[in-house]
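Changelog-adjacent note: as of this version, every example in the card shows the full chain rather than a window. The one below runs 401 residues end to end.
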Amino acid sequence: MKAVLLTREYPPDVYGGAGVHVEYLARELARLLEVEVRCFGPRRPEPDPREPSVRAFEPWAALGGDDAAVLRVLSVDLAMASGLEGASLVHSHTWYANFAGHLAKVLHGLPHVVTTHSLEPLRPWKAEQLGRGGYALTRFIERTALEHADAVIAVSQGMRADILEVYPQLDPARVRVILNGIDADEYAPDDGTDVLRHHGVDPDRPSVIFVGRITHQKGVTHLLDAASMFDPGAQIVLCAGAPDTPEIAEEVSSKVRALQEARDGVIWIREMLPKPSVIQLLTRATAFVCPSIYEPLGIVNLEAMACETAVVATAVGGIPEVVVHGETGLLVPFEAGVDRGPADPEALARDLAGAVNELLADPTRAEVMGKTGRQRVLERFTWREVAAQTVALYRELLEER
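Full-length structure tokens:
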């Protein structure tokens, strides 16, 4: 059996949870069957013989203009869908690669598996990034791929419910839940201080950390509103970059400036840090905060838990399937408004601040939550189990043919 994984992101170009997912899933799948990864970008170096083979594709240079962003994605998809001789099936990740999977199914008769890391109709703010026409096209791509896929993998029960609500014509039997995983050997506590000191974080003061992209989905602006109410003795560490739009970049910059003027210990790290640096920052934090307004699962919560750090998170999507309230962290209620943002942003900020301050006031409790979180990761969220369930699904689909 040969599986071809179709993805936008793959090392060294990984910037989001979907890319992390594909990186580790491909590695584990390669222990069980032949795997080829097809991704966006320049040619990758030859992989280790034990790793999946990789083919990278760049968009057509002839496509230009303000309306060409999504068309450039489709040009890569066209290239990805060609030359699939010897493949048993294709497995696409995110709308960026979904159309390649759909074309492979139609053109070559290959089973198409889709893993949903988010749903375009539930992210209306993407219209700001892609323009209304581009956003309409991404929704068309996703809908076409999911409605015709042989199987759709949801990364949480919450995500499965969203899929069936947004796409009610899908046969529920074709929508399977396979939770995300984490490499707990790599993401393990690091009690060093060199990374902290390099970035100006005082290892002797409590700290609250956020790690993520600057997008509406990740709720960074709501976190910054909450941070003004955090215990003044705590540091605030923001590992936040890659803004979706100039507008949200300026909004976040303005809020950070105001926060830095009002209190000390506000550290904003804008560059994408290597994993070992993130691991040390997570380990030494009193609490990790995930203020997302939409989150199918949230691998970053698993990363924090694996580093024995308590989590404060909004109770959205699949997060309650990861973070156990009162045991591995604290969950904050979230009510969506008409634009899928918080119905009451001020209440959300107060609730986030209250939960963070609760842990800052009781560091022993936060420490116990962190250790409990790592144990939960070890018991329930491993990439080896994710790969085993994925291969079982592949075999089921091939046996049906």
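Structural remarks: The CA atoms of residues 18 and 200 lie 30 Å apart.
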